[in-house]
Design goal:
Layout lengths: L4 H10 L8 E11 L17 E10 L3 H4 L6 E11 L8 E16 L2 E14 L18 E14 L4 E13 L10 E16 L15 E12 L5 E16 L2 E12 L12 E13 L2 E9 L13 E11 L3 E10 L2 E12 L1
Antiparallel strand pairs: 1-2, 1-8, 2-3, 3-4, 4-5, 5-6, 6-7, 7-8, 9-10, 9-16, 10-11, 11-12, 12-13, 13-14, 14-15, 15-16
């Protein structure tokens, strides 16, 4: 199921991309950066500097109903990129097919500031092997997943070409499919350009007033985890939360996660693997999109589960279908180490 999550995300994005577009563009960039060693054991293998190339096709629709999806104009894109970690024997390359959502945050004269976010399926040419590649505990599954976020500034050189500069923060992991699964975090600086096949001027729409009331929601995360017996068992997380919008694209909230992991061994009762965790949450709200970052504390958990961890983060990206129903994806992490990804459904009251 986890292998389908990036493609589900692509489908959510591209359902609104069909029809007449105000802008169509080819985007490309060259990248260079470094690897963050989030564990002392990873320092020796993290000394190389990754480089990469990215190519993408983007569309932007200017009708009001499209603008209302995030209360902003936004590009939707599909792209292909290759990143070389400059360590061919141990880290190899990552070839990624990805989808992107890029809302425009600010425009003035020839300048444009946007926030590009995306998710993709990555093929990794080098993964962990206990004999032949024991130091690479970043990657253990050839099919893994890329999540990234990058602020982008564009300067218009002509009616058909923009020069772009960006700072990318990337994370690749296998979503808990196979261990070890430390995942890799690697920032990249990028220079590139956007060639417009079509570029119309954008209208001005009045933004709605910021609501003063609190928003309540429920969501359910579903995935499966290795049970240590050669199979996989279901893992469910129910979340209940509330938030309030404090600015046009930003809100704060709190809530409670209730996690039931059937892959964990118990002695007497399944209640032993029930893990309640209160959380505080930051929300980036772009119309129908909600990019949420939860910081949670384990109020109760089995002694053998994440024995040295009392806190975790959960990142979710959801899209509201209709008035109340939400569909999206999530990722749970302990510090820099991703544990799993899940499919999420929810309801906003």
């Amino acid at each position: 199921m986890k292998s389908l999550l990036p493609f589900l995300f692509f489908g959510i994005l591209w359902t609104s991309a069909f029809g007449q577009s105000a802008r169509k563009a080819l985007d490309f960039s060259a990248q260079t950066g470094w690897i963050i060693p989030h564990n002392e054991e990873l320092i020796p293998i993290s000394q190389s500097n990754p480089i990469g190339l990215s190519f993408r096709y983007q569309v932007l629709k200017s009708k009001r109903e499209n603008w209302e999806a995030c209360n902003c104009f936004h590009y939707l894109g599909l792209g292909l990129q290759v990143q070389d970690f400059q360590n061919p024997e141990e880290l190899g390359q990552a070839w990624t097919f990805y989808g992107s959502f890029q809302p425009i945050l600010w425009r003035k004269n020839k300048l444009e500031l946007a926030l590009d976010m995306g998710i993709g399926a990555s093929y990794l040419t080098q993964v962990y092997d206990p004999v032949e590649n024991p130091r690479n505990t970043f990657f253990s599954a050839p099919l893994s997943f890329l999540l990234y976020v990058r602020p982008v500034i564009a300067y218009s050189l002509s009616s058909q070409f923009d020069l772009t500069a960006s700072f990318n923060y990337n994370h690749i992991s296998n979503g808990g499919q196979r261990q070890p699964n430390r995942g890799m975090n690697y920032p990249l600086f990028a220079l590139g350009g956007t060639y417009f096949l079509k570029k119309e001027s954008l209208p001005d729409y009045a933004k709605p007033e910021i609501p003063k009331e609190f928003q309540f929601y429920l969501d359910l995360g579903i995935n499966s985890r290795s049970n240590g017996q050669g199979g996989r068992s279901p893992n469910f997380t129910i979340g209940a939360g509330v938030y309030r919008k404090l600015a046009s694209v930003w809100g704060l909230g709190a809530g409670l996660d209730l996690n039931k992991d059937f892959s964990l061994a118990v002695e007497e009762s399944r209640l032993e693997s029930l893990m309640p965790a209160p959380f505080i949450a930051n929300h980036f709200l772009f119309g129908r999109f909600d990019f949420q970052q939860r910081f949670a504390w384990y109020a109760l958990k089995p002694d053998t589960y994440q024995a040295d961890r009392n806190f975790y983060q959960r990142y979710t990206l959801s899209y509201q279908l209709g008035r109340n129903f939400r569909l999206g994806v999530g990722m749970k992490a302990h510090g820099h180490v991703a544990e799993n990804m899940d499919l999420r459904v929810g309801w906003r009251f």
